[in-house]
Amino acid sequence: AGAKEDAFNVLDLAEYTKNRPWWRKVFGPSSGSSAEKYNVATQLVIGGVTGWCTGFIFQKVGKLAATAVGGGFFLLQVANHTGYIKVDWKMVERDVNKAKQQLKLHSSGNKMSPEVKSRVDEVIIFLKKNVILTGGFAGGFLLGMAS
Q1: Gap between the Cα atoms of 9 and 22, Å rounded
Q2: Which residues form a coiled coil (predicted)?
Q3: C-alpha torsion sign, points 41, 47, 51, 52
């Protein structure tokens, strides 16, 4: 009996997305700027609203994170003072100094990997093509942080 082999088309998503900038996924298949799709007022409103939402959320999460870190540090100090835990401060100092040395070594090279550099270049191109949208986002973000 002749077994019929089905032909399948395989799509490797990793390869597919390597050659497609992320903004094409967000703003559609056209490679142009969003200025070709929306007028100036619409771009400012979209940028402003998304920026305000992002700034507002960033502010709330930032307060929550600062409270959690500060509260955790406070509880650690209370537990150390009351004798529930003992902190080896010499070990902490040694580890902090080791981390400082590693940061100095990594920052002295100051070389980005090609993949990171290409992503940064994509973002810069997007920002240049969408100055109005970016400006609206920045203004909205600052208003969101202030509210």
Answers
A1: 24
A2: none
A3: positive
Any domain includes 131: yes
For the chain, residues with pLDDT lower than 70 are 1-37, 106-113
Residue 123, classed as helix, strand or coil, is helix
Q: What pLDDT is stored for residue 44 in this prediction? A: 82
Among residues 123, 127, 122, the alpha carbon closest in space to that of 137 is found at 127
- Report the phi/psi class of residue 83: left, alpha or beta, with left for phi > 0 and alpha for psi in -120 to 50: left
Residues with Cβ within 8 Å of residue 54, at least 6 apart in sequence: 137, 140, 141, 144
Confirm whether 35 is domain-assigned.
no
Domain total for the chain?
1
Does residue 49 form part of some domain?
Answer: yes
Cα separation, 126 vs 137, in Å, equals 13
As given in the structure block, the two tokens for residue 143 are 């208003």
Residue 129 and residue 32 in contact, taking contact as beta carbons nearer than 8 Å:
yes
The alpha carbon dihedral of 64, 69, 75, 77 has a sign of negative
Asked if residue 102 belongs to a domain, the reply is yes
102 is in which domain, residue-wise?
40-146
